[in-house]
Every structure is written in C-alpha cells, then in structure tokens.
Amino acid sequence: MTKEKDELKKNLEKVVEEQGGQQAVSYQDLFNPRFMQKNTHFTTIDVFVRELGARSFPEIEQLGQKVVDDFVKKETNFNSWEEMQQRAVSEYMTSLF
C-alpha cells in the first residue's frame, strides 16, 4: 500500500471505531454537489446517474465497467469509475478531520 492509502485506512478505522461501525455514508454525501461541480460536467450525482443511463445510483454497477469507465473518462476529471470513487472517499474523509 502507498503511504496515502495507509493513512486513509487508518483514518477510516478511526472513524469506524469512534462511530461504533454503525454509520454508513450515503452516495450523496460522497458525491456531494461541490465534488461533482469541481470534478465533472454535472451539478449533482443524480444528474450524472441519469446522463449515464441508469435510473438510480445502485444501477450503475449493472451497466458494465467499460460503459461506466468510458463515460467517466469523457465527462469527468477521472480515468475510471474506481478512481472517481476513491477520490470521493478521500475528499469525504479529509473533510471529517
């Protein structure tokens, strides 16, 4: 693991410990409007999902990795859906500290 990933893992573990592991983070919190406007051509994650061709956020996974990655590469500052998700988690975690 890289130093950044190690740090993120420690921070996540700390948050889980402090919150008793009971709190889930919504996709709207991870992909908040500020994140979306800074990193994509869309104002919200819901607009992104609709333009991608999904009816809801969970349906993204059903579209196929290549379809989603191609869309992300074209419409965002990221090269893949995984990279976009990792950045969203990282920025969310940073905002907690």
Structural account:
It is a single chain. The protein is mostly helical and 97 residues long. The two termini are 22 Å apart. It has six helices and no strands. The model has no long low-confidence stretch (mean pLDDT 88). It is globular and about 35 Å long. The protein is 65% helix and 0% strand.
Overview features:
97 residues; globular
- Sheet-strand content, in percent, reads under 5%
CA-CA gap between termini: 22 Å
User: Helix share of residues?
Assistant: 55-70%
Largest sheet: none
Shape: globular
What quaternary form is this? single chain
Annotation, overall tally of beta strands: 0
- Helix and strand content put the structural class at mainly alpha
Q: Residue-averaged pLDDT, rounded? A: 88
How many separate helices? 6
Task: Provide the succession of SSEs.
Answer: HHHHHH
Low-confidence regions: none
Q: For the CA atoms, what is the radius of gyration?
A: 14 Å
Helix/strand layout:
Elements: H1 3-19, H2 27-30, H3 33-39, H4 45-52, H5 65-75, H6 81-96
Brief overview, please?
With 97 residues, the protein is mostly helical. The protein contains 6 helices and no strands. The model has no long low-confidence stretch (mean pLDDT 88).
